[in-house]
Design brief:
This protein is an alpha+beta fold. The protein is built from 14 helices and 9 strands. It folds into 2 domains: about 100 residues, no CATH class; about 210 residues, no CATH class.
Length: about 425
């Protein structure tokens, strides 16, 4: 019953309108569902995802012709991640709308068939689609720093999920939490193209998985000529040496070693800019690589150490050291390296786009297999939005000037109102 806005105890009479019949209520509901149909998803994003990934299999569970075919299930899952309301029931309503638009019989409103179809969708298919999107976005943007070389920024983050025994096994909660009082925690390490924000690769681990170990599984993401950008968690003699052997330069924050003083430097390149030697670490059982791998490392690495002084008001850090394999001070001035490192903060914004804007911070699936699929689908949708942004600025402009959240809202509005996506060119920052 409606109440007075200033006198909550005073009830107001409800204005009674004409009672609608069941047929009229159904017609109104159907019209609302039509406005939220996902039938346009294939038109908007199909050019980024070739049809052969979603074609029926020759045999097996994905070979039958059914309502929740491989293609329909994928786009239903895609719509679930894309929509602000990501419930399974809403997805089924959208599928009903798409079926009715084609003049076919209205399917059941139960979510059971859709949930079983998601279980049939192979994780390998989603990983192949993500890899295809990453390859498309790999060289789509080149930066204005460091001689236009591609910069790959790496960082890690955590996600939680429903507290089930199945999820607790691969992703246990912390020991400080009593059983039943915490949630399984997974750790995700991703490699992003700094210029356009595309997620090039990722690895999933648990709370015991160090980001450095997850990065080593993604070394094939790097190509000769790339620049690896990371924080102090990636400061490692072994990794810098191995990446250099692949033709990949690195730029990281100094950690676990003392800064080299001027008197110990190989050469002074400028103010707070030194050419230095790092000695190979002594062998101990706590190293993350074997004795043969340690013996294969060079005894010394020639590196460049730059002290960056932060005088920006509001910044907690007042100074830090960058260690890099970019040794040429003329080709890579210290000020330009510092500016490039400041942009490393963008990776935190990329993870915010995925976890907060796309609501991946707390997952919904109750089994490890489905959790992995849910994460993969979030990252597919993320890269699709990044691909749209890249297309919007292809004629001119900077990707950094376009808001990911604004792009996502524009896509949602375009799909709901059936408007073109041309407004992506004028998104808010």
């Amino acid at each position: 019953m409606k109440t007075h806005p200033y006198l909550p105890g005073l009830h107001l009479p409800r204005a009674r309108g004409k009672v609608r019949s069941a047929k009229e209520r159904f017609a109104a509901e159907l019209e609302q569902v039509k406005q939220k149909s996902f039938s346009q998803l294939g038109e908007c994003f199909g050019r980024f995802i070739p049809g052969h990934f979603l074609s029926p299999s020759e045999s097996g569970t994905s070979s039958r012709r059914r309502l929740f075919s491989k293609e329909n299930t994928f786009w239903s899952f895609f719509a679930q991640i894309l929509d602000a309301d990501s419930g399974c029931k809403e997805v089924v309503r959208k599928l009903q709308a798409a079926v009715v638009e084609k003049g076919q019989a209205l399917p059941s409103s139960s979510t059971a068939a859709y949930c079983k179809a998601r279980q049939r969708l192979e994780l390998s298919t989603l990983e192949s689609i993500h890899q295809h999107l990453s390859d498309q976005l790999r060289n789509r943007a080149r930066g204005d720093l460091l001689n236009n070389r591609r910069i790959i920024v790496v960082d890690g983050t955590g996600v939680s999920m429903p507290d089930t025994e199945a999820n607790q096994e691969p992703w246990p909660q912390t020991k400080s939490q009593k059983p039943g009082c915490g949630f399984p925690q997974a750790r995700l390490c991703g490699c992003f193209n700094l210029q356009n924000g595309a997620l090039l690769s990722y690895e999933l681990g648990n709370k015991k998985s160090h980001e450095l170990m997850l990065l080593r599984k993604q070394w094939d993401t790097f190509e000769a000529g790339d620049i690896f950008l990371g924080d102090k968690g990636f400061c490692s003699y072994y990794d810098q040496s191995k990446l250099r052997d692949r033709g990949v330069d690195s730029m990281i924050t100094l950690a676990r070693r003392k800064p080299v003083e001027h008197a110990e430097a190989v050469e002074v390149l400028g103010e707070n800019d030194l050419l230095i030697h790092w000695s190979r670490p002594k062998w101990n059982k706590h190293l993350s690589y074997s004795v043969p791998e340690w013996e294969a490392l060079p005894e010394k690495l020639l590196l460049r150490q730059i002290k960056v002084i932060v005088d920006q008001p509001g910044f907690r850090t007042k100074g830090f050291y960058i260690v890099t394999t970019l040794l040429d001070a003329e080709a890579y001035p210290a000020a330009e390296l510092a500016e490039a490192y400041f942009r490393r903060w963008d990776v935190e914004l990329f993870f915010r786009d995925i976890k907060t804007t796309m609501d991946m911070d707390v997952l919904r699936c109750k089994s490890p297999e489905m959790v992995r699929k849910e994460i993969a689908m979030h990252l597919i949708v993320y890269n699709c939005i990044r691909a749209l942004i890249s297309e919007a600025v292809r004629g001119g402009g900077k990707v950094r000037r376009i808001s990911f959240k604004g792009a996502l809202q524009a896509v949602r509005k375009s799909l709901a109102l059936k408007e073109p996506l041309s407004q992506l060119a004028n998104l808010p920052v």
